[in-house]
Design a protein that fits this description.
The structure is a homodimer. Chain A is α+β, with helices and mostly antiparallel strands. In chain A, 36% of the residues lie in helices and 24% in strands. In chain A, strands 4-3-2-6-5-1-12-13-14 form a 9-stranded mixed β-sheet. A 4-stranded antiparallel β-sheet of chain A has the order 8-9-10-11. The longest helix of chain A has 23 residues. Chains A and B meet through strand 3, strand 4, helix 4, strand 7 and helix 8 of A and strand 3, strand 4, helix 4, strand 7 and helix 8 of B.
Chain lengths: 320, 320
């Protein structure tokens, strides 16, 4: 973990990693490279004195463009072979928030979430109404072929086959937990959070997870912390994960680290909710707990050094 | 407020009442009668030793059938003249939850929310996927004509005309806040909450408010309280109202009354969020704060007496 010096940016590319035994060195390197690229994109904003809100947006745009991660390009498929993406953004300065659910079209779902926040009186738009808004908002759109990856399509077929055969869940966390997110504390101590996802492979059409729900998968409040979660979303909603971390800081006076660990290791674990989260506080502290095998994650410290990791392992460090 | 004796049931028919100066005695009586009918429906479950979950469901079914309230029959219209209803249910025993957003078809949206909780692995379904699930779940459906009321249609035309003319918001809270909800504590001390709504008149298609979001408009946890909120939903989401009341009880050790009042009178008011909420705790305490002119509301005490009110006024009491 970095010292408490701001500005700081942390990102995740999902809890629920490829099982270590099936991970190749090349693939592992590719994940680290993808994480570093997103960290650089976000840090470029922060080091020029930019706002946390813009930094998390840029970082997540990079992750959405990277087909390795389940958001934007490379999003997973629903049970009926469609792609339905969710995203949320929250600004810790005034807790303004914007979110979309069930969209497919905008290259960057995070920008759709920001457009809801900045151009409407609403917080959350879902389904056809959300898609229509995205077109009217002038967001860059891409055809389905741009989002579609053979890897995710095969994962859907395998999951549907598993269900047809009535086989037990194989416990593959990668199928359930794919998400990307970013949290940042800028030089002024302002916080922001973004989460973006394709959701769960073979999810029921219309299913909305925790990612686009402020208080659940995404939360930012300068009075406490910014949180982006990743995991089995239904359990995260039932724990109000993002807001619960903030509440423990505000009312129980826990540190960021203690609060986040209690939620992930105790509260979520108690109801069987696997996954993790990343969080920052106004002092620039960062925490990244997860209760499963791995979580694609990274942070960039105030000196610009990039730290990335996947499993329970030392961070790979790239100096500036 | 009733003494802390359980079982207890509280309901609301929305904050954002008809302005007192335009309310007729007949109309006022009709609202009280509608509230009492819902209280009786829920209390019938509780007095026979039934579960809080079933009591809040029955109470809200009655409110959904009553065209006076903005949920189910009598729901408001979106900007493009459709009806899109949202509902959520949460069981305080294990914080299981179910919710739907953007549906029109099931006579009782609350039963759609329960079906999501009881028949799927998901918490929230939205839009066409949610509607398809409702049909497959065998829920009783009604045609649009059943939900449509002339009163709500006129309200839409007036709002659209107001926007066409570029007039300032007239501050009519009734247009923004219509919602119904119920919270209960049963004889065993188990809690449950339901919220159901047509949303805001002339809302953007696809807009999802706080009602179907666990942690925002709806929350239930036997460790703290059950909450159903009503008000300008976007602000309620940004305050995570339901979970914030619970957090203040759990971590700040506030009473139910103090916690609910702080959220409604201080936190919501601080960002301009008008509305209110109803809440119960495992001891059977009830609270019903609101920061606007009125809130259709009522509770039934353990002795079966029915208490209903609209404005800041003494409760009307109907003894058993």
């Amino acid at each position: 973990m970095p010292p408490a010096i701001r500005p700081v940016l942390a990102i995740h590319g999902g809890a629920g990693t490829v099982p270590r035994e099936t991970m190749t060195a090349e693939r592992e390197d590719a994940f680290h490279a993808g994480l570093r690229q997103a960290l650089r994109a976000g840090h470029a904003v922060l080091k020029d004195g930019g706002a946390a809100l813009d930094a998390v947006t840029k970082a997540v745009m990079a992750l959405e463009d990277d087909p390795l991660f389940n958001a934007g390009r490379g999003a997973v498929f629903t049970a009926d072979g469609k792609i339905e993406m969710d995203a949320a953004v929250m600004d810790g300065r005034d807790r303004r928030a914007g979110a979309v659910a069930g969209i497919c079209g905008p290259r960057h779902p995070v920008l759709a979430a920001r457009a809801v926040m900045e151009q409407t009186d609403h917080v959350l738009l879902a389904g056809p109404g959300a898609r229509r808004f995205c077109r009217q908002a002038g967001l860059e759109h891409r055809p389905l072929s741009w989002f579609r990856t053979e890897f995710r399509w095969r994962a859907l077929q395998e999951e549907l086959e598993r269900r047809r055969l009535g086989l037990a869940d194989d416990g593959d966390e990668a199928r359930k937990h794919g998400t990307v997110g970013a949290v940042a504390c800028d030089a002024r101590g302002n916080l922001a959070a973004v989460t973006s996802t394709g959701g769960m492979t073979a999810k029921m059409p219309g299913r909305v997870g925790d990612s686009p729900l402020p208080g659940a998968g995404t939360w930012a409040d300068d009075a406490s912390c910014a949180v982006s979660a990743t995991g089995h979303g239904e359990f995260f909603i039932r724990c109000a994960v993002g807001h619960e971390v903030a509440s423990r800081i505000r009312w129980l006076k826990q540190t960021l680290d203690d609060a986040a660990n209690a939620v992930v290791m105790e509260e979520l674990a108690a109801i069987g909710g696997s996954g993790g989260l990343i969080a920052v506080d106004p002092g620039g502290h960062v925490t990244m707990p997860f209760n499963c095998a791995g979580m694609y994650r990274g942070f960039v410290a105030a000196d610009g050094s990039l730290h990335t990791a996947i499993y329970r392992e030392p961070f790979r460090l790239e100096r500036v």
